[in-house]
Amino acid sequence: MTHKKHILKGASIIGSASVVTIIISLFKVKILALYVGPVGVGTMGLLMTVLSLATTIVGFGINTACVRELAHNNKPGKMSLIRRSVNLVNVIIGFITILIVYIFKAELSILLFNSDSYEIEVILLSVGVLLSLISSAQLAFLQGYRKLKEIAKYKIYSAILSSVIGLTIIYILGNKGVIYFVLSLPFFSVVMGAIYSKRLPSTGRKIPNMKEVLATIKPMINVGTAFMLAAIMNETAKLFVRKIVNDNIGIESVGQYQAAWSISMTYIGFILTAMAADYYPRLSKSINDSRRTFLNVNRQLEMSLLLASPFILILITFSNPLVYLLYSSEFKQSGLILKWQALGDIFKIMGWSLGFLLVAKGKGLQYFLTEAAFSVTYVMLINYGISNYDVEITGYAFVLAYFVYLVLLYRIVKITFRIKIARVNVTTFLVLFLVSSLVLFTHYYARYLSYFIGCCAILFSLLKAYYYVSNSGLIPKSITRKISV
Predict the structure, then answer these.
(1) Among 193, 228, 263, where does a domain finish?
(2) How many CB atoms lie within 10 A of CB 255?
(3) Do 416 and 473 have their domain in common?
(4) Tens digit of pLDDT per residue, the chain (485 long)?
(5) How far is Cα 22 from Cα 159, in angstroms, rounded to an integer?
(6) Do residues 222 and 358 share a domain?
(7) Which residue of 99, 149, 448, 466 is 20 to 30 Å from 270, comparing CA positions?
(8) Residue 242 covered by a domain
(9) Sequence-ordered list of residues with C-beta below 8 angstroms from that of 305, at least 6 positions apart, any chain
(10) CA dist list (Å): 306 to 8, 299, 425
(11) How far apart are CA 268 and CA 94, in angstroms?
């Protein structure tokens, strides 16, 4: 199997699962928006951000580092010890979190919701933290063993079950059911993770002693702490953005921002999720071989840019109709925000491939600096610009912040690894950015011309992506010939 075909096969498995989960997610959020409106969507965004931030803080980056450790090791005994230790530590941390939250539930309710009447929601969020830690570990094990088919099934079934139960609760309870809607995904992720983790080699029933656990976990914490701090910075930034928007404009504008953010992250997540599942462990294995690393990075960049191009162009060209279709006519401002976020995603995708170099090498400080550069720039631009540009500043700031992120990241990677980006990838990146910018700015002055340019660009990008995939050998020649005819 050629290197390109191997990358595409891995991406196609996870990508196919992502397509299914995207459709499910869009349906789920559409129904949620119809039942609870912008206020409910804004509340969901706040709860999900708090849950994600809390999970990141108490997780110490252990699950992220676990993938790297499993990819580096090929001894069954060592890999089993890693899994047992990670499971035990996650459960202990999760229950300690629940205990602490229970003690300070009133104070946390006031801090998060400006009211002491949300104590039950706060306690339930702490249970969600435990579930998220366990499910993240299960996913890390599957990823470390590169069980891509199992990961795909895990994601699809978790999404289906959580959507059915979550929406049923919303139908019955309305806005009061948003907290249960949020918790449904980590709950069913644990259920499906338990099922598919059984297909991995048995770890045995022996519970490791604390000396073994500490010796195993310590290097993962050393590596994971910097990644944890970076993730905390990102989640805190998102929380600050929602607070800035809420304080200056109101919760309805938070819903407008959340809608655009959800669409952007969902579609681009199709590419990024597919990349992380196979690319991260593969890069971790080859990180000490400069030639293989150069090949891995540039092949991944080539695939990511080509396959992401149609999605980005579709988002920029048809953002307004998409928002109306996926949410409702109440989300008018989300369309413009989405256009700018899609433009910023070009920088994000470019940086994502390079950023994994730092993760795979264990360069925690450098990784933290690049993530901090994005988060600080993003929040500052929104804080100082919201009075002049309203909620649309969240889109403008997204582009500028990821530009700063990419410039700094490329500089660090070039110095640390002496890796250059292949000319074909630089060309693809520049063409995509220029064409996307043309479509976006034309929208302000000649909307129908913008649609025409966008449709032409989408068609060309689809043909380019098809040509890339067909040349990889992933599509049978008989099918390729029929399509060509």
Answers:
(1) 228
(2) 29
(3) yes
(4) 455 666 666 666 776 777 788 788 778 877 888 887 777 877 787 888 788 878 888 887 787 777 777 777 767 777 778 888 888 888 888 999 999 989 988 888 888 777 777 788 889 999 999 999 998 888 888 887 778 788 888 888 998 999 999 889 988 888 888 889 989 989 999 999 888 888 877 766 667 677 777 777 777 777 777 777 887 788 788 888 888 888 888 877 888 888 888 788 777 766 776 666 677 777 877 777 778 888 888 888 888 888 889 989 999 999 888 888 877 777 778 888 999 999 999 999 999 888 888 877 878 788 888 999 999 999 999 999 998 888 889 999 999 999 999 999 999 988 888 888 889 999 999 999 999 999 999 988 888 999 999 999 999 999 988 887 777 655 444 434 443 44
(5) 9
(6) no
(7) 448
(8) no
(9) 349, 350, 425, 428, 429, 432
(10) 12, 11, 9
(11) 30
Query: Is 305 inside any structural domain?
Result: yes
Distance between CA atoms of residues 212 and 189, nearest Å: 28
Same domain, 423 and 298: yes
222, 138: one domain: yes
- C-alpha distances in Å from residue 323, one per residue of 4, 30, 331, 340, 458: 35, 10, 7, 14, 19
- Structural domain includes residue 241: no
User: Would you give the DSSP letter of residue 1?
Assistant: -
Tokens 């199992």 locate to 150
DSSP for 100-161, please give it.
HHHHTHHHHHHHHHSSTT-HHHHHHHHHHHHHHHHHHHHHHHHHHTT-HHHHHHHHHHHHHH
Q: Which amino acid is at 190?
A: V
309/183 same-domain check: no
DSSP annotation string for 339-392: HHHHHHHHHHHHHHHHHHHHHHHT-HHHHHHHHHHHHHHHHHHHHHHHHHHGGG
Residue 154 placed within a domain: yes
The widest CA-to-CA distance across the chain, in whole angstroms, is 69
Using CA atoms of 452, 454, 458, 459 in order, give the dihedral in degrees to the nearest 10: 20
428 CB contacts (<8 Å, ≥6 apart)? 302, 305, 306, 309
State whether 80 and 169 are in the same domain.
yes
Q: For 203, phi and psi rounded to 5 degrees?
A: -95, -5
Contacts of 340 (CB under 8 A, 6+ apart): 392, 395, 396, 398, 399, 440
Residue 232 token pair:
């905390």
d(CA 423, CA 409): 18
Q: State both tokens at 361.
A: 């090498």
Q: Encoding tokens for residue 11?
A: 């991406």
How many structural domains compose the chain?
Answer: 2
The verdict on 219 and 273 lying in the same domain is no
Which residue segment(s) compose the domain that 82 sits in? 1-228
Judge whether 367 and 226 are in contact, CB under 8 Å: yes
